[in-house]
Amino acid sequence: MSRILEVLKVSTRLGLTSFGGPIAHLGYFHEEYVKRRKWLDEKSYTDLVALCQFLPGPASSQVGIAIGIQRAGLIGGLIAWLGFTLPSAIALMIFAFVLKGLNIQHAGWLHGLMIVAVAVVAQAVWGMASKLATGRVRGTIAILSAVITLFVPTSYIQVLLILVSGLIGWRFFKTDTPQEIQPMHIPISRKTGVGFLTLFFAFLIVFPLLRLGIHNQGLAMFDSFYRAGALVFGGGHVVLPLLQRDVVPTGWMSNAQFLAGYGATQAVPGPLFTFSAYLGFVSKPYPNGIVGGVLALIAIFLPAFLLVAGALPFWNAIRSKPGFQSALAGINASVVGILIAALYNPVWTSAIKTPYDFCLAIIAFALLIIWKLPPWIVVVISALGGLVLSAIA
């Protein structure tokens, strides 16, 4: 019970302070779970990130769920998800109820939060590159992955890069001495893991078939959000077109309502997939309100939980094999490159517009790297800095 409460406490604080999108979340997680609390070592964390980048769904949330599972079992994974997700989900449902169409996209404090994301992502990239992209081959894999990702900005190219980089690692790093890895404590049997994976695929087949025969908006909503969570690679920004295609033409909401909710989503910490809570809340005719918000939220995150819980029981055995360790070295270098690309687009391009913005970003970076301030303090300082910049602009 003490571990479950500990997971709840830590994940909730992350859910309240982790601004900046999925790549920034990985930086917050690394600082809290690896460096500060030492719940897992660097190698286990980077391997988890590689696994979750490869799986469809919200990568940062999946990393959080996996860490919760290894710390406190399946309940720990659920608690880690709740703590990280509910703060932003509740905030977005309140936005839907109170703010209506109020435009918050140009608020100074919001711009400050976007700027601090640049510093957080840069810190994460710096730390991971120094460990995972060393040497000519790994460094080249990282740089080429960044360049290709920027030139071909689709989620599927990232999956292809990870596969190709794994093959390169398997080919070129064969002579490397296999690394001694610290096995992750995974309190799930392989039989249970197979059950979770079976449910993941069964829901993908069953819900569309039920939707054909049963005309019910609740079922249709669950099916739409479940498929969005199950079939998208690349995280929250990628899932938006899929959701818009399902919720606007069906008449569940107007395009203006959809865009207003997206603006509100940028103002809250936590995973971008919590946008689903807003969409479920404003949907019509029914379910909507709290019922609709909770239904949509569960549906879009359920695939992530099923995939992580299904894959983890096999992860120690797979990652300990010398051949896979070689492949994983290439995969991790590619992930660094993908993070470098994400640092530029969308993080940098959406936040750094003026020299003043850049000044605030490097101040935030210095507070994290040199002064070693906790990320949540840097977030608050940057939000205040954004207000100052908006006043003098």
From TrEMBL:
Family statement drawn from the similarity comment of this UniProt entry: Belongs to the chromate ion transporter (CHR) (TC 2.A.51) family.
Subcellular locations according to the entry: Cell membrane
Record organism: Alicyclobacillus fastidiosus
Protein name: Chromate transporter
Database matches in PANTHER family: CHROMATE ION TRANSPORTER (EUROFUNG)
Keywords: Cell membrane, Membrane, Transmembrane, Transmembrane helix
Highest taxon in the source lineage: Bacteria
InterPro entries according to UniProt: Chr_Tranpt_l_chain, Chromate_transpt
Spans through the membrane: 74-97, 109-129, 141-173, 193-213, 225-243, 263-282, 294-315, 327-347
Membrane topology classification: Multi-pass membrane protein
